[in-house]
Amino acid sequence: MPQTGQPQSANSLLFLTDEQVRIGIEAMFFAYRGFTSDPDRILSNKAYGRAHHRAVHFIQRSPGTTVNNLLNILGVTKQSLNRVLRTLIADGLVSSTVGRADKRERHLHLTEAGAALERELSDAQGVRMRSAYRKAGPEAVAGFRAVLEAMMDEDMRRQYSAMKDMTDG
Amino acid sequence: MPQTGQPQSANSLLFLTDEQVRIGIEAMFFAYRGFTSDPDRILSNKAYGRAHHRAVHFIQRSPGTTVNNLLNILGVTKQSLNRVLRTLIADGLVSSTVGRADKRERHLHLTEAGAALERELSDAQGVRMRSAYRKAGPEAVAGFRAVLEAMMDEDMRRQYSAMKDMTDG
DNA sequence: TTGGAATGTCAACAAAGCTGACGTATTGTT
DNA sequence: AACAATACGTCAGCTTTGTTGACATTCCAA
Hints:
By secondary structure, chain A is mostly helical. Chain A is built from 7 helices and 3 strands, in the order H-H-E-H-H-E-E-H-H-H. In chain A, helix 1 runs antiparallel to helix 5. The longest helix of chain A has 26 residues. Chains A and B meet through helix 1, helix 2, helix 5, helix 6 and helix 7 of A and helix 1, helix 2, helix 5, helix 6 and helix 7 of B. Chain A binds a DNA duplex (30 and 30 nucleotides) through helix 4.
């Protein structure tokens, strides 16, 4: 560690060294593991997986979203998504209704049961996230989000910002 | 959103609302996609996958590490890791040497070729990370790391801190 | 010397991604 | 009216990466 009398201040570029970048990479790896572990544990008792979680999450976020829209957000093939949606619909967690304006489209909603599952999963994930937020403090949270947003692909950043702006400002 | 005339300051608890937590969850989801996309693209031309990337990354980080140690870090079963290591060893990217003190253990090192692959992957990942760091600034980076660290499981935080302390002080 | 730890292998399987092909209904365009 | 494009669903088959369970080998340590 440099003993220059200067802190690693905003004017320093020390935060861009290879070592710092490597630490960030590992932080992402380990943190993502924690991030997914609680919902994964819940789902492992329910014949569902992480893919189902993502589906119900984004349907909750945008009720009435179409299959195609969900496809773009999730970044998977329709076959892969279809496999997940089929089970969710069959199990009565998601409803699929023919579009009013465009009858080719299917609009997706969570049923009561689907909403309950989504809530259970996001609550579990939220407990960890909130605890991390509280531990790190609001300034850190702002930085956390700034770096993550800068790390996204352009397309995803648009998706993210659209959602964020609904509540954020 | 409350219009209190107060900014969302350090003393406010607004950053702990459900909406803020939900935004953080999506930030993690979208950012992790970006985070893995560059190495994934490189690997898709090489008959390797993300699991191989993780293996060479952590062997690079701790040369001579044992299989068991790697198992703990990666959090997968030995069968799963073994499949990956077998191909890496067969392809001459990783060397496995019998332990000197404990001959049951295998010590893992990257060969020249393995180190080259690891460099290619971590360079690609580093470009994105560094760019995100630069865009967000050093204060944000500190917050980013603080939140991620708080989000880890205890075991992983120990792994992470051990590595971090090697370069970080 | 015996028990347990570390490693490896075989087999079988599951989740979740992929490509390619095809069918149907609907919509838009010419 | 004919044709092309879009949205969705599905079948078949494949890949990667994870899982259990069973079992063998080697070797340290009590």
